[in-house]
Amino acid sequence: MGSIAKLSRNSFPDVFVFGSSSSAYQFEGETNKSGKGPNIWDTFIEEHPERISDHSNAKAAVDFYHRYKEDVQRMKGMGMDAFRFSISWSRVLPHGRLSAGINEEGIQFYNNLIDELIKNGMITLNEPFMFSVNGYDTGTMAPGRVSTLENYPGQPKISGATEVYTVTHHLLLAHATAVKLYKEKYQTCQGGKIGITLVSHWFEPYSTSESDYPQNMHDYVGERLPKFSEEESKMLRGSYDFIGVNYYTTYYAQNVEDANYKTIGFMEDARVTWPGERNGIPIGPQAGSSWLYICPEGIRHLLNYIKDAYENPTIYITENGVDDVNSSSLEEALNDHVREQYYKDIFDNVLESINDHGVDVKGFFAWSFLDDFEWGYGYSSRFGLYFIDYKDDLKRYAKNSSTAMGSVDDFSRYSFPDDFVFGTSSSAYQYEGETNKHGRGPAIWDTFTEEHAERINDHSNGNVAVDFYHRYKEDVQRMKEMGMDAFRFSISWSRVLPRKFSSS
């Protein structure tokens, strides 16, 4: 992001990476094609369309599945160093288990995407909290399970609010197991790094009163909190080469007295609320989404805290961005001055953490390279550096903010360390599309959007998304044009292992 006044990549460490981010379901599309199996979001949207604000889905998304090549070129043109993407495992393992067989078409798609990124001089490298709490406590995301009936009356209630902790427990074990496997079998020959990405807001105290400091959450959860064995704890400890941080916003933290809780769930166990206002005054300007307040200084506080609390681990900012509501004209959407200023302020704060506090930040990935399927908000929220015309064949248009990583007129990458990586991010369901084609099996989001279309703001789904499945080559070229160094993506495992069982 290169045209931001007074900033230069020289201001950042030599090893700093600038990039953008994506997620498979939000980008790819092709949710039920190309051998992909259904995932929890396919099911969630189908069953609860009312939980998506615009009742949309990601069956097409932004068609990254077909347009990835041109999109990679766009990233390159933006000057991105990297692209953080996710793999749709229902595209790779469409039946959910390795024994049930892999989807060769899904594997080939990700091989093609990685080849396209490497060919364009990029490196290829997510949020257990969002998956566990929103999927198994509040029910706002796939698979839509709830701890209480408060949010969605009439939905099945989870007895004792245990699933959110059980899921988190196994996510951590899966992470540690993957790290152990990679370090033992692949790291020496591949020279790669492995870590975990955690989403974290920054919190300011609502008041200075000691009574606002909550009792240890463990005391409230008790036996519902799974225990790790000594061997599991040893495997988990230090199971990362880097920490990925997804930062979007800041809230106040306010204690809530026990007497006010008549139900149990994750937030009830925490005995805390996260208000975005104090005495009627917002903590920052509100962005397009109701949950997102613009607080760039929060990223500095968060980075400094991580350094001080966790012995200065290597950090990559794997997601960061700001959205607008999908109601502007094309001209207005492309002149995204709020986003341009936001990234300037973010980079100012990241540089301050690096230079003044000694935080070991190695890279930045913008969320997102393209407008995409934004989970419960469907397509009504736009985070992209590129505008997607959902009414005209998912055409891509560069927003003003897309030039920020490519131009060096005022903002130079030399402000950052030499090894800093700039990139963008994605996730398989949000980008790919082709959810029920090309051998992909169903994933939880396929099921969720089918069963709960009402939980998506615009009743949409990721069946097409942004068609990254077909357009990945052109999208990789776009990243290249943006000057991206890297692209963070995810793998749809239901595309690779469509039938859940590894033996088939």
- Radius of gyration from the alpha-carbon trace, in angstroms: 21 Å
Question: What is the CATH C level class, in words?
Answer: Alpha Beta
Biggest sheet layout? 9 strands, parallel
CATH topology: TIM Barrel
Instruction: Note poorly predicted spans.
Output: none
- Percentage of residues assigned to helices: 25-40%
How many alpha or pi helices?
15
Total strands: the figure is: 28
* Gross geometry: globular
CATH architecture: Alpha-Beta Barrel
CATH homologous superfamily placement: Glycosidases
Helix and strand composition category: alpha/beta
N-to-C span: 45 Å
Fraction of residues in β-strands: 15-25%
Overall pLDDT: 86
Structural topology:
Layout (H helix, E strand, L loop, with lengths): L14 E9 H4 E2 L10 H8 L4 E3 L2 E6 L1 H14 L4 E8 L8 E2 L4 H16 L8 H9 L26 H23 L1 H4 L4 E5 L2 E4 L11 H5 L8 H7 L5 E5 L3 E6 L10 H5 L1 E2 L3 E2 L2 E2 L14 H13 L5 E5 L4 E2 L4 H5 L2 H21 L3 E7 L13 E2 L3 E4 L5 E4 L20 E15 L9 E3 L3 E2 L5 E3 L2 E6 L1 H4 E3 L4 E2 L5 E7 H4 L4 E3 L1
Parallel strand pairs: 1-5, 1-16, 1-20, 2-20, 3-23, 4-24, 5-27, 6-28, 7-9, 8-10, 9-14, 14-16, 16-20
Antiparallel strand pairs: 10-11, 12-13, 15-17, 18-19
Comma- or semicolon-separated keywords:
beta-glucosidase activity, alpha/beta, 28 strands, TIM Barrel, three-stranded mixed beta sheet, single chain, Glyco_hydro_1, 504 residues
Describe the structure.
The protein is an alpha/beta fold and 504 residues long. The protein has a single domain (15-196, 224-242, 296-503), classed as TIM Barrel. 28% of the residues lie in helices and 25% in strands. It has 15 helices and 28 strands. The strands form 8 sheets. Strands 1, 2, 5, 7, 9, 14, 16, 20 and 27 form a 9-stranded parallel sheet that branches. A hairpin with a 2-residue loop joins β12 and β13. α3 (64-77) packs parallel to α4 (104-119) and α5 (128-136) packs antiparallel against α6. The protein is globular and about 55 Å long.
